[in-house]
Automatic annotation (TrEMBL):
Protein name: Major facilitator superfamily (MFS) profile domain-containing protein
Biological source species: Plantactinospora mayteni
PROSITE patterns, per the entry: MFS, SUGAR_TRANSPORT_1
Pfam families linked to this entry: MFS_1
Entry's transmembrane regions: 7-31, 43-64, 76-94, 100-121, 133-158, 243-269, 281-300, 367-390
Amino acid sequence: MRRAPALSFLFGTVFLDMLGLGLIVPIVPALMSAVTRDAAAAVFWSGLLGSIYGLLQFAVSPLLGRLSDRYGRRPVLLASLACLGLDWLAHAISPSPWTLLVFHALAGACAGTKTVVNAYIADVTEAESRARAYGLIGSAFGLGFVAGPTIGGLLGAVDVRLPFFAAATLSFANVAYGWFVLPESRPGDRTTPLTLRTANPVGAVTVVLRRPVLGRLAYARLCADVARMTHQSTWTFFLTYQFAWSTVQIGVVLAAGALVGAVFQARAVGPIVRRLGDRRAAVAGSLLGVAALAGTAFVSVPWMLYVLQAVGVLGSVGGPAAQSWISRHVRADEQGIVQGTLTGIGAVAETVVPVTAGLAFGWSLTYASPGLVFVGAAAFAAVSTLLLAATPDRRTVPIE
């Protein structure tokens, strides 16, 4: 196994994925307004596109994971990247929101990048090095988040559809690069069962949650996802309301936090997890996340916000540690389906939480404190911490 080219490709894949997403984030409202020719319709269709993507990702992710267990990681990953490129290309040329809906639904059904990347890393790294590899992937995520919106805003100033052409080009270039340099980490194994019970989302989630250790870790991941999405969905609105910050100030703080977090995950996560172990590092990181969220709820001056951001960066060690911990409790022939199931669970949170968190934040502005929504996020993070702390670090029975 040529690990260095493979891990480099995975790092590049996640970076380009986030870069492509970041390219189009500032431009989506303008594109949807141009396509629908109505501001209210643009908001409706933007929400519908996001919902259909999340719904289909939930429905199909366990199947994609199982296909990667049975037929190999490489074909599923390259097909996912190709579908994403088609989706961006459709955004660039489509004159109709219905066309966008079809292609975005296809992209959601093929959204196996995260699933396969996590399974691939488990295939090619030793258990003691796995958290470092997942930290590098988190670093790629952060770097793409920093670069994407900036480049997208510049391209969008030239033409509203240009960022989508750029995102499609990056996706197709990634497919071509992977075709030539990405080795297969798990050759096809036709003896791996492919049944309706494990390939449908409800059945896959049920099987995973029933396993004593893996089930607790999955519930902890769900609570952490709810907390994370609540923070992401409301943080910029909170800063605008609490400190009257401009979009430039918010953008600089976001970019700086993402850049520092990327460096921390790339350089510090591996040594920290080697010293503490997966379980203790996951619990410690989750506790720091609780502190950052709870502190944000009561922040009153901007300098406190920077301190809490630093605490949140330190807490980011918990994600790679928990991911490494999960992978150690999964057999080689079931990494794909477990990672796909976790991706599907996360897709539910990413679809539902932004809407509910936005409604809760709006209610709190009228009837309570604007920081109340972060108290709720901290509560979910605290439940995640308790689940991690209560979970024994032992092997569990395989999926059948």
